[in-house]
Specification:
The radius of gyration is 20 Å and the shape is globular. The protein is α/β, with parallel strands linked by helices. Helix 2 (about 50-70) packs antiparallel against helix 3, helix 3 packs antiparallel against helix 4 (about 90-110) and helix 4 packs antiparallel against helix 5. The strands form 3 sheets. The protein has a 7-stranded mixed sheet, sandwiched between helices. The chain has a 4-stranded mixed sheet with strand order 11-8-9-12, with helices on one face. It has 11 helices and 14 strands.
């Protein structure tokens, strides 16, 4: 199944409504910056690369709105960019895409309005095209780590639904499968929002990949029973020393994998690297609404509950066997020196 998570045609932006999956597979149209902001906050679109792409198109639509009001200037454009940047603080791809659009605005603001708008549109399209190419390269670079017969555990959703292409972690699985390798994927449910059960399992099934759904707490037992050969996840931010931020629960899986001597792989684009942060403790962690936790249960009186709901956790680079990127693979030990050298090459 060739999934197009984001479609931009005739100045119209449409996304798969991931909040409706797996029961409904529908596209929704986003006509304004406010609608893009709302879609990101409410997880209609999610996944670091997909958020960045959607934000880029959203800023182009916003520029057109400003033009129609006669207020297309840098100050107003920056206001829109800031409202987008504040939607989800952990994923660095969002800030990267916004910065790219802001730079194009600043570099072309002296041109005729139509030329400026065209430049913004082409920049958003380029971010989208680049992500498609990046996903394919990540899949190719990581496929050699997947052996025939492997049983792979994944967490959250790092597939086509999270990107503008075939995914990051799941792109590795798709590529290895196309190479003729027989793989079986164990899909973590990924509480509290269920990106594994709602999105990853649905996506794998749509692509004829053998998969089994498990609850998050079953992973340790499966590893002990030697039913897992590798763990592969995505990342929302990778900092200078190799620490990563990813969906809550990733850190625990990395500890379990190390204890059971199972390789733990991270697949992510270079746009997910934030070399301005030296260690994971300084990554901003998004805290989400308590109802994401409570709504799962048939609780009538929710007022008595105090809930902690971080959307992400941080996994130290020392627990990561390799980081798979479009440029190549950074093998353990993942260190600041290795990452710096990787970007220089």
């Amino acid at each position: 199944m060739n999934l197009e998570t984001i479609i931009f045609e005739n100045n119209t932006l449409k996304i798969i409504d991931q909040a409706k999956l797996p029961d409904q597979f529908i596209y929704i149209q986003l006509n304004s910056l406010d609608e893009v902001v709302r879609a990101i906050k409410k997880l209609n679109v999610r996944g670091a690369p997909a958020i960045g792409i959607t934000a880029a198109y959203g800023l182009y639509l916003y520029a057109r709105q400003l033009q129609s009001k006669g207020t297309l200037d840098l100050a107003h454009f920056k206001e829109g960019a800031l409202s987008l940047k504040n939607t989800r603080p952990t994923a660095v791809n969002l800030g990267w895409a916004i910065h790219s659009m802001l730079k194009q605005f600043q570099d072309n603001m002296e041109k005729e309005t139509e030329a400026l708008l065209e430049r913004l549109k082409q920049t958003a399209r380029q971010i989208h095209r680049q992500d498609k190419e990046t996903c394919l390269a990540i899949g190719k670079n990581g496929s050699g780590l997947m052996k025939d017969g492997f049983r792979i555990l994944t967490h959250c959703n790092a597939g086509a639904l999270a990107t503008g292409g075939s995914g990051t972690a799941l792109s590795v699985i798709y590529t290895a499968t196309r190479q003729g390798k027989r793989l079986h994927v164990f899909v973590d449910e990924t509480r509290p929002v269920g990106q594994g059960v709602r999105l990853t399992y649905w996506e794998l099934h749509a692509n004829d990949i053998a998969a089994t759904l498990i609850t998050d707490s079953m992973a340790a037992w499966l590893m002990k029973e030697k039913k897992i050969n590798a763990v592969i996840v995505g990342a929302d931010r990778i900092v200078n020393n190799g620490d990563i931020a990813n969906k809550i629960g990733t850190y625990g899986l990395a500890i379990l994998a190390q204890y059971h001597k199972i390789p733990f792989y991270v697949a992510a684009p270079l746009s997910s690297f934030d070399l301005s942060i030296d260690k994971g403790e300084r990554i901003p962690i998004e805290m989400r609404d308590e109802n994401e936790v409570l709504d799962f249960w048939p609780i009538k009186d929710k007022t008595k509950y105090k809930v902690l709901n971080p959307a992400f956790d941080v996994t130290p680079g020392s627990l990561i066997s390799a980081i798979i990127t479009e440029k190549g693979v950074i093998h353990q030990p993942v260190t600041a020196k290795k990452i710096t050298q990787f970007f220089k090459n």
